[in-house]
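Annex B, item 7. Sequence and structure tokens for protein A, then protein B.
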Amino acid sequence: MKRLTFYTEAAYIIGLIMLAFGTALMTRGGFGMSMVVAPAYILHLKLSQILPAFTFGMAEYLLQAVIIAVMMLILKRVRITYLLTFATTVLYGLLLDASLLVLPKIETGEYFIRVGLYIVGIFMCTAAIALLFKTYFPPAAYEVFVKNISNHFNIKLFTFKTVFDCSFCAIAVAMSFLLLGRLEGIGVGTVICALIYGTLIGLFTKLFDKAWVFKDKFNLKIFKESEGK
């Protein structure tokens, strides 16, 4: 079967929209966020009590801005790609807030609806990440931090990713009890994400490679040069 052309610029836009909407679905499902998203969700729950206009999306790009700043301090360098990464996080945050506005809140008793939303959300998020990995645009700060820090200290990527995820899970648990006095954002869904996220991303990557050939349409050199390509 002849593969169709999928332009990476379109993959970036579609991937971001899918990632934001998938995260919103998981939020409405209420079974716990993924480990890296949970701290931002808890921060949103706390600060929105004081500042009602403080959204989940704002918490995401605020936290990711801190991660980028920490990374630059550790590496002792600043690159254009880090600023472009922040632009990606802001766009994602805006899309996330828009998605949450579109989706109605689900009552706690509507168990099977919540399960359905959560499952669809997981599949959308993992498919979106697989798409975003096919583009030359900078990904979210989480991935950039793991990639650059592991390279800097010559640590295996998978090993450091595991440490990073576990650390964020611990941070989320601590933040939840310290800021809210109860466990929020962490649940059975968080464990499920930890177990199947990588597998699903790999599966979608293989499916996409079979169906499409990913090509650059506009060849925006600023992004490629900033990544050292």
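Protein B:
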Amino acid sequence: MNLELESARLWLRPFKKSDATGLYQMNTDHEVLKYTGDSPLGSIQDAQQYIDDYVNNPAGQIKKYKMGRLACIDKESQEFVGFCGIKTHEASQLTDIGYRFLKKHWGKGYATEACAVILKFAFVTHNKQEIVAHVHEHNIGSQRVVEKLGFDLSHRFLWDGLLPGRYYKMNRETYDNQSY
């Protein structure tokens, strides 16, 4: 299965070691991590290790499910701008969409553009019947992205019992009726 996708401005592909600096910068920025609950990466070497494990782990998303978070590369500059992708949760078998971008690339429409490509990948290539999105209650930018894409708010919840979140869903019928 091809894990190299593209939109008008972006290449989406599995992470490469050359993405480590961008991944490190993104995942040490307090503003980027503010609503994720994730801890910052400790070093570029930690980012390289993360990439190696994420891409090569036989039990991971890439190898096991032929999906996962993919690096988003600006076609024009060849710069790493963030990531976007779907992943399946082992226990529930729910598939969620997630994305994160370097702060300097916020407001450029990359999240919506990348998610549209990923939704096609999810519903057409993987024949998924539903995709979910978990968005922090105060992350207005991400709420706008999923709502623009056609997700419906299902309910509010506490993420890991701590962080206030919104649980969005999109089913196959809704996706099939989209025009992006």
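Comment on protein B: The first helix runs from residue 20 to 26.
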